[in-house]
Amino acid sequence: MSQIRTRFAPSPTGYMHIGNLRTALYTYLIARKNKGKFILRIEDTDQERYVEGATDVIYNTLKLVGLEHDEGPDVGGEYGPYIQSERKDIYDYYASRLIEVKGAYPCFCTKDRLDTLREQCLKAGDQFKYDGFCKNIPMEEAIARRKEGEACVVRQIIPESGITSFDDVVFGIISVENSTLDEGVLVKSDGMPTYNFANVVDDHLMCITHVVRGSEYLSSTPKYNLLYKAFGWQLPTYIHLPPVMKEAGKKLSKREGDASFEDFYSKGYLTEAIVNYIALLGWSSGTGQEFFTLDELKAVFSTDGLNKAPAIFDVNKLRWMNGEYIRKRTLEQFHEIALPYYAKSITRQDIDLFSLSKLLQPRVEVLCDIPENIDFIDKLPEYDISLFVNKKMKTDLQNSKTSLEEAFRVLNELEVWSEHSIHDALFKLIEKLGVKNGQILWPIRIAVSGKQATPGGAIELLTLLGKKESLHRISGTVLSMGQI
Ligand code: GLU
């Protein structure tokens, strides 16, 4: 069998949709698993939708997640150019050939005529279908008029009867009656091809063996197959992927910030977690294994594990998985990626940030959780005094105040301020007073952080904040509690 060649063919929209990234991943994995080639092609024939810098978004995303391509606009290759807008001459040549082999015809209908036709179809409750008016123009005449530069589009010729079928790897046999297919536009009047034409020409010329793309193209694939047939070209293997949904019947939405890779990346999701999670959106290894590195995926991925049901993107599962990946990093690595978040939230110079990382790594699921976890460090936030009342810890306002006064005394005497010395001093106090650990530790946690949930407990917080700040917060709290 010839070498497997797959392609990822995004349109430069300015962002990478999660569903598209999954398509890229599967496309890449099929190539890598089979020692084939993974090609990047930019589908920018729709110039009206051109977005500045959009191609860079594609390159950057693929690079960040580690899907390196073997051929593409930026790395070259023997089947270029890999940007469709640079392939106009090629489409032009193949459009003329298709007309010659009676797979297409020039159509000179005016916009007015088409609008009227569209209205008629609408009135009759039918979907718009071109009525084949220009098919009746003698071919020689039509070709000559097109050559002379008369404004026209090129339309595909669809057989009036019969059925076109193909076997999709995921969806099985797909059949459509040719009579339901529209003789759609292949080349627009500005000479630009439509996706319907360009994808076929490019996939053939780039020797693509496996076409992997979203299932929204499933129903038009028979039309593409008729083009392959008209040209006498061999069909690729088709692998259509089900959509990625927010929940049944609801799409991921860019506006709600849950549709694009950038949204997640900028919130501090790790690329390896994103890759792992999206790999599972519609594919399973069959072994129940959930954690995969990209290298592991390259080794085990198989189209047998693809599912045709729409995949549900469960952001909570991604969060959880991201947390697991955060924990897989070394402390040094975590510290490195957490630093920018500290820089934004902490201005105090006396905080041992590495110790802070030690406290945060076990509890952070996504890096963007960091600011809310450390918002008490610079300044004690306002909080409700009822936080001192905790049934489980057996604390109320009265005993909390006493505990803080006692704790202040022993902590104030400490000459060495370390986790160890603080621990010893507080546990000695607990023993001396004959109280439960929580009765001392809980009030301290609240007094120095203003929060019930903190990275680390009272002892870690005291160590982190330093003696001066800790005592200042404790004494301030005692004062503000006044006469209880
Ligand atoms: N340019 C198309 C898209 O972004 C790709 C379809 C295909 O892979 O053939 O949806």
Write a brief structural summary.
By secondary structure, the chain is mostly helical. It has helices spanning 18-33, 54-65, 88-100, 111-123, 139-147, 195-205, 221-231, 261-266, 271-279, 294-300, 315-328, 331-345, 353-360, 370-373, 397-412, 419-433, 437-449, 458-465, 467-481, and strands at residues 5-8, 37-40, 104-107, 153-156, 163-168, 172-177, 185-187, 210-214, 237-241, 244-247, 250-251, 311-312.
Structural account:
By secondary structure, this protein is mainly alpha-helical. Among the domains are: 246-327, Orthogonal Bundle (Glutamyl-tRNA Synthetase, domain 2); 329-374; 385-481, Orthogonal Bundle (Arc Repressor Mutant, subunit A), CATH 1.10.10. It has 19 helices and 12 strands. It has a 3-stranded antiparallel β-sheet with strand order 3-4-7. It has a 3-stranded mixed β-sheet with strand order 11-10-12, with no helix packed on it. The chain has a two-stranded parallel sheet with strand order 1-2. Strand 8 (210-214), helix 7 (221-231) and strand 9 form a beta-alpha-beta unit. Helix 9 packs across helix 11 (315-328). It is elongated. The N and C termini lie far apart (85 Å). The mean pLDDT is 95.
Features of the shown structure:
Glutamyl-tRNA Synthetase, domain 2; binds glutamic acid; Arc Repressor Mutant, subunit A; 484 residues; single chain; mainly alpha; 3-stranded mixed sheet; elongated
